[in-house]
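Researcher: I'd like a candidate sequence for this fold, 135 residues long. If you have to choose between options at a position, lean toward the conservative one.
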C-alpha cells in the first residue's frame, strides 16, 4: 500500500516543500528578530514560509488524483476528513473560549499541527475500523 508510485511522488514533493519551508522560515525569523527587513518587504518575507505549507496541501490533493488504488485513496480521504473535522472542531471551541477571555489568543498557524494530529487520528480510526491505516 505505502509503496505505490503516487505515494512515493507525494513523499518526494513533501520532502522538497518541507526543505523549502525551512529555507524560508529560518531567514525570516532571523530577519524579523534583528530588524533586517525593510517596510513593505516584511509582508512578502512573512508570507513566504506559508507558501510551501500550502504546497503540501496541493501535493496531497495531487496525490488523491494520482493514486490508482481506490481503496488506498479512500483511506486517505477518510484521514483527511478526520483531520479537517478535528481541526475545525478545535478551532471552533478555542475561538469561543478566546472570545470569552478564558484562554490566551493562539497564532493561527498552529492549526496545521492540529490538522496533522487529525491525520494521525484518522489513520488510527482506519486501522481500528477497517484493519488498514492507509498511508
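Model: Candidate sequence:
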Amino acid at each position: 500500500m505505502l509503496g505505490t508510485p503516487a505515494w512515493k511522488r507525494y513523499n518526494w514533493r513533501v520532502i522538497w516543500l518541507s526543505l523549502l519551508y525551512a529555507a524560508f522560515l529560518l531567514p525570516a525569523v532571523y530577519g524579523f528578530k534583528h530588524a533586517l527587513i525593510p517596510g513593505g518587504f516584511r509582508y512578502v518575507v512573512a508570507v513566504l514560509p506559508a507558501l510551501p505549507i500550502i504546497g503540501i496541501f496541493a501535493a496531497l490533493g495531487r496525490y488523491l488524483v494520482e493514486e490508482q488504488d481506490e481503496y488506498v485513496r479512500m483511506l486517505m480521504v477518510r484521514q483527511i476528513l478526520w483531520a479537517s473535522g478535528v481541526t475545525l472542531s478545535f478551532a471552533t471551541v478555542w475561538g469561543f473560549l478566546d472570545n470569552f477571555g478564558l484562554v490566551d489568543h493562539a497564532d493561527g498557524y498552529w492549526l496545521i499541527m492540529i490538522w496533522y494530529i487529525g491525520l494521525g487520528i484518522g489513520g488510527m480510526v482506519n486501522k481500528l475500523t477497517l484493519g488498514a491505516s492507509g498511508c
